[in-house]
């Protein structure tokens, strides 16, 4: 069966329809699934075909709203909710224990959640909030639920872990590895924190693919410029306006190509299910196709990826083994 060529305007629904045979029967966990967000749209379209979609969030009320809305749209959806606060290592451990008690294996884990793009803020563990939510929390979660992911592997299927990064990582200098575990308020800026957290996710995909020795295929991606709940938050708005992402009125700056949420969510579904990616674990995607040439050199560097992995193992006090 030949698959279509996806483009910048392809929607998540269109990708899911094209890849229905790959999605059918699969169990998927998606972080960050609040309404008016990319993770919600991915959960909605995947719930039409997947065996099980686990949606997560730190706010139980918003999580329940997402569940009810998806079930209204997709009555046949098999959904499960999981309370997960990626900014707290203890909360991640608690959520992971719940996942490990599930009877099903996990075919796909999608790390979609992100912290607000905001001023310097430390988590309960003394970590910078953007780095904790995009990189450190997902790293620990992946490590702890790895047995569930590995259990989905067969002779003909390799489970996947997907990191929703950003093309904006290219706008910043190389990541300061020392600051990952020891945040420095004096050198931090709102957008530098964002660039580095997103670049770390690209490095995570490269290193996870390498260290799992073919047992897990990991991918990273940029969804493109999309107006979602996260960049509409009041705590983010001033910096987004100052950075020229939003207009002084707080609207999407027309100098960028803005995608709709369905268009932005498409690349995640491609990374999670397109069988054409099987031969190239660790690649980065933009506009629903492989775009390794768009990765900043520092975010594609194997040595940096290995160092970041080792540093992060030290931060969380957990070592991966496959």
UniProtKB/TrEMBL annotation:
Transmembrane helix in keyword set: no
Keyword set, alphabetical order: Oxidoreductase
Pfam families to which the protein is assigned, alphabetical: adh_short
Gene Ontology molecular function terms on file: oxidoreductase activity
Family of this protein: Belongs to the short-chain dehydrogenases/reductases (SDR) family.
Protein's name in the database: Short-chain dehydrogenase/reductase family protein
Protein species of origin: Mycena metata
């Amino acid at each position: 069966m030949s698959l279509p060529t996806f483009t910048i305007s392809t929607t998540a629904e269109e990708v899911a329809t094209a890849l229905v045979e790959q999605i059918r029967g699969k169990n998927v966990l998606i972080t960050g699934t609040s309404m008016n967000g990319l993770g919600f749209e991915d959960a909605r379209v995947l719930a039409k075909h997947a065996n099980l979609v686990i949606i997560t969030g730190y706010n139980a009320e918003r999580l329940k709203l997402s569940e009810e809305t998806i079930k209204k749209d997709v009555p046949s959806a098999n959904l499960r909710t999981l309370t997960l606060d990626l900014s707290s290592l203890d909360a991640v451990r608690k959520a992971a224990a719940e996942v490990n008690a599930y009877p099903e294996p996990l075919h796909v884990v999608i790390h979609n959640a992100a912290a607000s793009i905001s001023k310097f803020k430390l988590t309960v563990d003394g970590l910078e909030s953007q780095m904790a939510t995009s990189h450190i929390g997902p790293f620990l979660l992946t490590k702890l639920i790895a047995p569930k992911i590995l259990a989905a592997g067969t002779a003909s299927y390799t489970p996947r872990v997907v990191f929703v990064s950003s093309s904006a990582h290219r706008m910043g200098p190389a990541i300061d590895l020392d600051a990952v575990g020891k945040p420095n308020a004096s050198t931090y800026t709102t957008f530098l924190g964002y660039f580095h957290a997103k670049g770390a996710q690209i490095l995570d995909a490269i290193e996870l693919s390498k260290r799992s020795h073919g047992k897990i295929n990991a991918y990273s991606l940029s969804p493109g410029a999309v107006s979602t709940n996260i960049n509409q938050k009041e705590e983010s708005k001033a910096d987004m306006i100052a950075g020229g992402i939003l207009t002084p009125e707080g609207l999407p700056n027309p100098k960028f190509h803005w995608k709709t949420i369905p268009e932005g969510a498409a690349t995640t579904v491609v990374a999670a299910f397109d069988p054409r990616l099987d031969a190239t674990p660790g690649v980065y995607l933009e506009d629903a196709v492989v775009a390794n040439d768009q990765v900043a050199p520092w975010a594609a560097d194997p040595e940096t990826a290995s160092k970041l992995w080792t540093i992060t193992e030290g931060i969380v006090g957990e070592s991966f083994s496959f």
